[in-house]
Amino acid sequence: MKKIIFLLCSFSFQLDAQDKAEKSFEKFKQFYSLLYSFYVDTVDFNKIVETSIMKSLETLDPHSAYLPPKEASSENDRLQGSFEGIGISYNIIRDTLTIGDVIAGGPSEKIGLMSGDKMLKINDTLWAGKPTMKADDYVSRLRGKKGTQVKVCILRNKDVINFNITRDVIPLYSVDASFMIDKEVGYIKLNKFAHTTPYEIDTAIRKLKSQGMKTLVLDLQNNGGGLLNASVALSNEFLEPDKLVVYTEGVKSPKTEYRTDNSGNFKDGKLIVLVNESSASASEIVSGAIQDWDRGIIVGRRTFGKGLVQRPFTLNDNAQVRLTTAKYFTPSGRCIQKPYTENRKEYRADIWNRMQSGELTNDEFETLAKDGTMKIKKDGKDTTIKISETEIKYTSKGRKVYGAGGVTPDIFVPIDTSMNTDYYFKFLRKGILFNFAQNYVSANKAKLLKEFPNEDYYVNKFEVNKETLDSLIAKGIREEISREDSSYQKSMRLFKVVLKANIARYLYNSQAFYKVIMEIDPMVKKALILSRENFSKYKVRNE
Which pLDDT value is given to residue 11? Predict the structure, then answer.
């Protein structure tokens, strides 16, 4: 009888909710009709509808979103892992498109476009020097169906060169780098979770194992997530068969479990996962599952805290609404979505607030307490930071873990601010350092490749000399950045390593960049120390 009463009440509630929704929809239609019939001027109804959708979504949660047709298409390309175009990445510097990376095997590489080339014309129309041009304007002209052609005119040093490029399918890789740091430690840098991610990861792991890898450092720093299924496939590489990776559940979405099969290739071996405050969504699924099953050590800083699942719905003009339909939960039952209210500004300021509180930079970090607080020492005094109304769960071996605020790492590594100065960040904000690296490679590429025929030789032998640094500082002065000797001395090593890394990116590829930049990455340094330790003392698998 109680069950029947419950079902009747539930059915009655559903009818009431449906009735309220229909009345609200009718009200909006009446408003729309009034505008059409009586408003004094011509009405842009498409703009009104788009504004209404966006404003409506803002009242729900921070991650439900509306994407206009062009943005929806670009995002779909990113997650599909490919698009049709000419195969470059670029920056807009001083109103001119400047090529950053030329994608290996793509049509631009095949005809000889180079990093640092400046695009003057597209199909005989001058586009350089037009401040009104936006990224979408270039994308719409350079992308196109496979087999079609686009004519470009580029400036390389002082030479003006014309190219006819036949568009093709361009892969978008999610693995930026995979290489051996030493004889036993492999490293994989993953930038997103896309359709191609499982294949790319599987290929990378097989390659590294064949080179002797016994410990894997999986770098998910700044990985904002992507496809749920890709995160499950990645977890499958490390966990035993039939292990729960994540489950999703919402008021209108029944509980759905995602489990591993038996196809992974690194179920044995030490595993270290690097995360930071910008590791979100699918990155948190993977790190949460590995932590809950005590499969590896999570190193870094508390993750972003996005535990909401978005489902894309395509509208009649190919725009897309990405609607939150469920929450996801780690195997122990943690929902790691950080609290949110209607105050979107406060939600977006969360990472800034973490920085201001000292959470991201303080060496004397302590793990979360039972009441959901975090203890640090600030200005020589004990300080307590409230994270959230934290839920406490337990791993398979009984270790305490926390939800409702991101994945808290097993080992904390603060941001290294010892070399930071505002003087250095001025070079970053104005894009001077990256532009300098592009121009340096463009002017010296043949000479550099002759002297450093491969990336490993470059990483070990190339040094940014005083003459090159002086040229960079002089370029800063021309861009109205006054030289500050004390700040320059403090940031000198940072200038050298970041410049060397970016020269490596434009000379070789992204992998070369990471081989250089890890020299100043405290997380990678910590991972290398951990790789030589016995993991059993951390109560995680040691083999």
Answer: 46
Containing domain of residue 135, as a range?
Answer: 82-171
DSSP string, 352-388: HHHHHHTTTT-SS-----TTSEEEEEETTEEEEEE--
CA dihedral defined by 356, 357, 360, 362, rounded to 10 degrees? 120
* Whole-angstrom distance, CA of residue 74 vs CA of residue 68: 10
Q: At 8, is the pLDDT very low, low, confident or very high (cuts 50, 70, 90)?
A: very low
Query: Phi first, then psi: what are they for 535, rounded to 5°?
Result: -70, -15
Instruction: Specify the pLDDT at position 49.
Output: 85
CB 402 within 8 A of CB 332: no
Rounded CA separation 477/263 (Å): 56
Element counts in the chain: helices (H) and strands (E): 17, 23
Give residue-wise pLDDT tens across range 247-306: 999 988 899 999 998 788 999 999 999 999 999 999 999 999 999 999 999 999 999 999
- What is the SS3 assignment for 455? helix
358-369: average pLDDT? 69
Taking Cα atoms as reference points, which of 278, 305, 452, 297 lies closest to residue 372? 305
- Asked if residue 406 lies in contact with residue 303, where contact means CB atoms within 8 angstroms, the answer is yes
What's the rounded Cα separation, in Å, for the pair 307 and 405?
9
**Residues assigned a catalytic role:** 281, 292, 306
What are 165's strand-pairing partners? 150
Strand segments, DSSP code E, in 409-526 are 411-412
Asked if residue 362 lies in contact with residue 377, where contact means CB atoms within 8 angstroms, the answer is yes
pTM attached to this predicted model: 0.84
Residue 305 contacts residue 389 (beta carbons within 8 Å)? no
Backbone φ, ψ for residue 230 (5° rounding): -70, -35
Quick one: 478 and 367 in the same domain? no
pLDDT, position 60: 86
Distance CA 12, CA 7 (A): 8
Domain count, the chain: 3
The residue ranges of DSSP E strands in 50-200, in sequence order, are 65-67, 82-85, 88-93, 96-102, 118-122, 125-126, 149-156, 159-166, 168-171, 175-180, 185-190
Burial 464-482 (b: 16+ CB within 10 A, else e): beeebeeebbebbeeeebe
Q: What is the mean pLDDT of the chain?
A: 86
Kindly state whether residues 191 and 110 are assigned to the same domain. no
Q: State which of 413, 438, 462 marks the end of a domain.
A: 413
| Residue-level pLDDT at 114 | 78
How far from chain centre, in Å, is Cα 55?
A: 26
Cα angle for residues 101, 103, 109 (degrees, 5° grid): 100
* Residue from 354, 388, 340 nearest 58 by CA: 340
Single-letter residue type at 309: V
Question: Is there a single domain that holds both residue 181 and residue 256?
Answer: yes
Do 301 and 184 lie in one domain? The reply is yes
Q: Which of 274, 299, 448, 305 shows the shortest CA–CA distance to 365?
A: 299
Q: What is the tens place of the pLDDT at every residue in 91-100? A: 776 778 888 7
